[in-house]
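Worked problem 6 (solution included).
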Amino acid sequence: MTYLLLRHRDIPDLHKIDVYQAHGGYEGLRTAVLEMTPQDVIDVVRSSGLRGRGGAGFPTGVKWSFIPKGPGDKYVVINTDESETGTFKDRELSEKNPHQVIEGAIIAAYSIGAKTIYNYFRGEFMDAGYAMEEAIREAYAAGFLGKNILGSEFSCDFYCHYGAGAYICGEETALINSLQGELGQPWSKPPFPAVEGLYRKPTVVNNTETLANVPLILVNGAEWYMGMGTDKSPGVKIVCMSGHVEKPGNYEVEMGVTYRQLIEMAGGMRGGKKFKALLPSGGSGPVITDKALDAPMTYEGLTPHGSVMGSASVIVMDESTDMVWAALKMLHFFKHESCGKCTPCREGTFWMEKLLHRIYEGHGTPQDVQTLESVANQIGGRTLCALGDFAINPVLSTIKHFPEEYRTKVQGSSNGQVKKAAAKTAVPS
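Solution. The predicted structure is:
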C-alpha cells in the first residue's frame, strides 16, 4: 500500500523539509491560511470524521469547535507523551515524518486562533524530540512558523517540552499541569481544557498521529478521507503490533481490518504456536480471545466483546502465556504509574497487586480472588482520570476469560495447605 502517515517508508529523507515539500508538504497549510477561513478549516476536519488517535476517539473537528471565538491567548498542545504499553507509533512519526505533524499542528493553531504550539514529549523520547526540533528550525527558516506565515496576518510559534516519563501525563489535564510546571496530576472537569487549559486559557490537546492526518485532509478533502475505513471510523490508523508475532512493528491500515488480519500482517504467531489472547489497546484495555479476532478494528468494533480499540497497540499472546502472570505484570505497571491523587487508585492498585501476587505465587485462596474482584469494582469509575479503570481491566478480563487459570493456582495452594496441615497433625511412628 501507499503510506499516508508512514510516508517516510516510501520516500527516503522525508524528515528534511526540501524533500517533504517536493512531495506535497505544507500544501495543506497553504490551502488553509491562504484560501480558507478558520471556520472553514474546522468544518472540513469535522466533515472528514477524523477522530482522536490517542485512544479516546473524540471527533477532532468537534474538539476544535469548542474553543471560544474572538481575541485572547489560545494554545495547541501536541501529546507525544506516548507511554501506553505496546505503543510506539508517535515516536516513529516524530523521528521520521516530523514535518507532517508540525504542519497539522500549525493548521490546528490557525483554525482556533492560537499563536503558540507546544509539543509535550515523553522524557525518554530524546531522539524524537531532537528530530522534531531540527524540523521546527527548518519550518521557521522556510516561513511556515514565526511572524506573518506565508505572507498572511497569521503568526505562530512552536516549542518542545520534555516530561519526566510519567504515564499519567498522557492524560490531557495532567499533561497541561506538567507543562506549566505543576505536579503532573489530572484535575476534576469542568473546567475542560477548551475553556480553561494551559495557563487557564483555551487549549486544544491533540495526539501526534491525529495531527499527522490533518494536512492530507486539507489537500484531498473530507470526502476522500471518508472514503477510507468505515462510516463511523473513517481513515487510516497506525497499529503497533508486538508480543508473540513473527514481525512486530508499526502497520498502517485502513480502519475496519480485523484483528485476525492484523496478526497475519505481522507474520502470524511466532514459532507456529497457537493464539491465546491479545490486548487490543496495550495494558489499558480488557483482553480479548479468539472469539473476537474477526471483529473490525474500529472505535466501536470491540464493544460487543467488552473491550476497546484504544490507541491500537496490539499485544499478542500465545498458548504458553500464563494469564495470571500477564495480569500481574500489567497491574504492576499501573500501580507504579498511579499519580496517587485519587484514593481508590492509589490504595486499590496497591492491594490488588498484593492479592494478585499472592495468587500467582501459589499462596492465594478462592476468597482472595473474590476480594480482588471486589477491590477492582470499587476502583472503576471512581477516579479523576481513566488510569484506575485501565488498571482493573486486565485483571477483571483475565478472570472472566481464563477463570480456570485462577482456580488452578488457588486449588494448588489449598492442596498444599492441606498437605502441610496433615503433616503437622500426623502421629510419628
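Discussion: The first strand starts at residue 75 and ends at 80.
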